[in-house]
Design brief:
Two copies of one chain form a homodimer.
Chain A (H helix, E strand, L loop, with lengths): L6 H19 L2 E2 H8 L3 H14 L2 E6 L9 E5 L5 E7 L3 E8 L4 E8 L5 H15 L3 H7 E8 L2 E3 L4 E5 L4 E4 L1 H9 L3 E5 H12 L8 E6 L3 E7 L2 E3 L26 H5 L1 H14 L8 H6 L3 H25 L4 E4 L7 H14 L7 E3 L5 H15 L9
Helix pairs in contact in A: 2-3, 4-6, 7-13, 9-11, 11-12
Chain A binds a DNA duplex through helix 1 and helix 3.
Chain lengths: 386, 386
DNA sequence: AGACTTTTTTCACTTAATGAAATAAGATGG
DNA sequence: CCATCTTATTTCATTAAGTGAAAAAAGTCT
């Protein structure tokens, strides 16, 4: 429910406005900041000095004078604090310590013997301990811990409503972990976490809406509108992994996104292909595609096209400013991606939005770290679970 | 771009908050209003007396005392002002005069000899004139005119970017009309207008998100998030009419939503069916379905199921609080609707949101009227094109 | 060095909300 | 029927955040 706006919230909103402007545009003088926010110079003076006092902003170099006093650049001090990101996998917790720009400073991995909530919380505690052993430093400079996992997450209460992959049902994982690490903890769906990182410092940085598609262990998506994750009425927005497809007039053929398009599914299809074409010794799909193997190129092309066709439906529905595609399947390269983009261009209602491919290893845990960092740039639910 | 919040905008936001609370909940006492908005009693006293002075609120009957002074109910005075809605059709302009609750007070239709912007503007002027001949009354009590039409509309500038059905391209229809009627004019896509009406006083009244699906002359949709229409980066959100469908593994079969699912397309399929089944004299599809004709029930069932299957993809992506289905095809009744709902239930990822069917004749122009009314409940772009 | 220019800060003022106290209006009970 | 209690609404002094104008700071240019 929307709530009243008093002077306190108004101030917080203006603070967020200025911070996000600096995040998107880099260094700005106080005067530019005033012009771009619409606030008076006087107000900016006060706001900036508060933020400098808190350590989030620093004065940069003065730039060119235009015949008078040089403007003093003000910029975000990304090194001022740390954040920790934890990505839950079925067999391990991947952890990373980053600065406020999600730049990794250290990383570690803790193995999981099982996926019981207590086991996961204990492994997470160990990971945090390894990354910042000094508990004083933790309370001083660590802004919090972000936890990313597959499933439907109630981010406000820090509860995992449903995670099929972990077999969880209403697990208050944020508070379980917060009890152990004594810093604020935020949980979110892993694809949402990736999308937030893209929004803060990635391809969606200067855009207000985005559609994120992940082709990894499963297939999932995330939506950003007005610079905010759209989570849906039951935290299920973007859960396209199980979308059925009636196949035109043939309603009896249902193709499951994850079943055909996930990275494991693609590998499986390659294995089946290799098994049937006798005499050929099995080669890795990625290598085969890179060396131009016709069967591999054909398989990936067909899958890419089909993904593209489904992407068109999503684009036409929400009309995002940009589409960002990531996930482990990106490693299959152009053979998969180009036909996908081609299909989007061919079948879109209008000229489609730009499609950006962005993926690298360890990006999951950086996304998790962005969950905590986002709270600096975003005024809503700035409390986490502590 | 988001902008600063000063005391003026804060006040406007609080005013909006109170108005929307009253719209959703009906009459409330000042005390309840204070409790639900989070504002102090003192602030509510001031706010309410301003709104009463302006004529938008009135005091209602005092309710039951609970042992002390009776609370005085405050409610919206829907009769305080008028709004006019214009729905552009290819051969006519349908117009309705409503109160602030979109309740029709009078209606008229003006024929169009062609769809040139000037012709449309002139016909619209005539319609307004017929509904309120007295120009003094217009400037006093008419809050504005809402114009609904198919196509991509830049609502901020009142420009129709593209309308295939009218052959328009960047037509500043709002200012063309505003010049003639001398009241504020707002234009929007017709499906968006319908959705806004549903949000203000229909099935989405107490919800903050909704997915609206229209099966009419074409097939279109609208999205409401946070009580606001989601228009997309190029005003193209919801334009699913041309969505392609790769049909599972068979990428060569493309079924176009509008081509198979629009009301004319359904009629066409019935006509084809009647033509092939020799000896049978043609019966109207709606009548055939109502009388339980197996072929009609079968045809509508198959179409309904296919629509349902596609709806699942949309629901899984955006996870709306409610789905609202409307459009001229609703007249085909349960034979079409029930299989659609069945399919949604069968193939959804989670328990699907409630699906509400809401349609009646002349609803298009009431939706148009809601475009102007919405500006009272919504603080953004409250200026229109004047 | 003195005259401009441009940026940033200072300060008196305005506005909208707040909490506490006052007032209004009805209920209750002898 | 009057005194007292209860609940609803209004009044008022106070507070917080932003504004515009003027002052101060920090340059450039001749």
């Amino acid at each position: 429910m929307a709530l009243k706006v008093d002077q306190g919230t108004a101030k917080a909103l203006n603070r967020r406005l200025a911070l996000n402007l600096l995040r998107r545009e880099g260094g700005l003088s106080r005067g530019e900041l005033a012009a771009k926010t619409g606030l008076s110079n006087a107000a900016i003076t006060g706001l900036v000095s508060e933020l400098i006092e808190e350590g989030f902003l620093k004065e940069g170099e003065s730039t060119q004078s235009t015949g008078g006093r040089k403007p003093v650049l003000v910029e975000l001090d990304y090194a001022a604090r740390y954040s920790i990101g934890l990505k839950l996998m079925s067999d391990r917790v991947e952890a990373v310590l980053t600065d406020l720009s999600t730049e990794p400073l250290a990383a570690t991995v803790v193995a999981l013997s099982n996926v019981e909530p207590e086991t996961v919380a204990e492994a997470s505690r160990q990971a945090v301990q390894q990354l910042i052993p000094d508990s004083d430093l933790r309370s001083e400079k660590l802004i919090g811990v972000g936890l990313a996992m597959p499933g439907l997450i109630d981010v406000e209460h820090g509860v995992c409503r449903i995670s099929h992959r972990f077999g969880w049902h209403n697990v208050p994982i944020a508070s379980l972990l917060a009890e152990q690490v004594h810093v604020p903890v935020w949980v979110d769906n892993d694809v949402n976490a990736f999308a937030i990182a893209q929004q803060l410092f990635g391809a969606a940085r200067r855009r207000s809406s985005a559609l994120v598609l992940i082709i990894g262990t499963g297939v999932g998506s995330a939506l950003i509108f007005h610079g905010q994750i759209h989570r849906g009425a039951r935290f299920a927005a973007g859960e396209i992994g199980f979308a059925v497809d009636g196949g035109g007039l043939k309603t009896d053929t249902f193709a499951n996104w994850s079943h055909r398009f996930s990275e494991p599914a693609i590998e499986r299809q390659w294995a089946e292909l290799c098994a049937t074409s006798a005499g050929q010794k099995p080669v890795k799909l990625q290598e085969a595609a890179e060396s131009g193997d016709p069967q591999a190129v054909e398989l990936l092309g067909s899958i890419g096209r089909d993904i593209g066709i489904r992407l068109v439906g999503m684009i036409d529905l929400v009309d995002p400013e940009v589409v960002i595609v990531g996930g482990e399947a990106i490693r299959f390269g152009k053979a998969l991606i180009d036909p996908m983009i081609e299909a989007v261009k061919q079948y879109s209602f209008e000229v489609p939005p730009p499609i950006e491919i962005d993926w690298e290893n360890n990006i999951w845990s950086r996304g998790a770290s962005a969950l905590a960092i986002q709270k600096f740039f975003d005024f809503e639910s700035a409390d986490g679970v502590a």
